Amino acid sequence: MRRWRWLMARLQEWFAHPGGRPRPAESPRRVLRCREVVDLVLSYLEDSLDPGERQVLEAHIADCQGCWRFLQSYRETVALGQQLREEAIPPDVRERLETFLRSRLPPTS
Predict the structure, then answer these.
(1) Stated pTM of the model
(2) Domain membership of residue 58 as a residue range
(3) Residue 15 is assigned to a structural domain of this protein
(4) CB 3.0 to 4.6 Å from 32: which of 14, 60, 67, 101, for a disulfide?
(5) What is the DSSP string of 9-47?
(6) What is the C-alpha to C-alpha distance for residues 37 and 57, in angstroms, rounded to an integer?
(7) What does pLDDT average to over the chain?
């Protein structure tokens, strides 16, 4: 049984490292899913992500046209929102917006 486990471990290592090359000493790069990008965009734009997470997010956005478009739309929306004056927003629109934003915030403890 020990031989079998040893053999399986060697096979997994062989498949993980084509050509018999060992992995670099650094930890494996995390891969983001598009859903995760949506959750990180605000922190990314506020420059509050740690450097490693920022790098992973930027790598995903560089390869994913949908997420890149989402980021661009988000940036444009924020810029347009900053141009609005408070009194320019109709009360019913303001209420719906505030309700939506509150529903997106994590519950407070």
Answers:
(1) 0.52
(2) 28-94
(3) no
(4) 60
(5) HHHHHHHHSGGGPPPPSSPPPP---HHHHHHHHHHHHTT
(6) 7
(7) 78
